[in-house]
Every structure is written in C-alpha cells, then in structure tokens.
Protein YhfH (Robertmurraya beringensis), 45 residues
Amino acid sequence: MLISPVEFFRTLPKKVCPECGQQVHEQAESYFLECDRCLSKKMEE
C-alpha cells in the first residue's frame, strides 16, 4: 500500500540534536543536525 508524500513527511519523527538532545526546529533549506545553541557553541571554539 502506498501512502501520499504529504502523509509520509507528516509522520517522520522530529529531528533531535545529537549534542544536547533538544528537538531541532527544522528549516526548509537547512541540513544541520545540531540545534542553534550547540551550533553557536561550535562557532565560538
């Protein structure tokens, strides 16, 4: 049985930051895995 693309994307699990475990607010053209807080920490290092 095939499901519609809309239903497929709607049922995907939320992305979680591998550094801190916080749910990542996804953006359409973003391929980052980390949350904004962890990304900013990496930029400071």
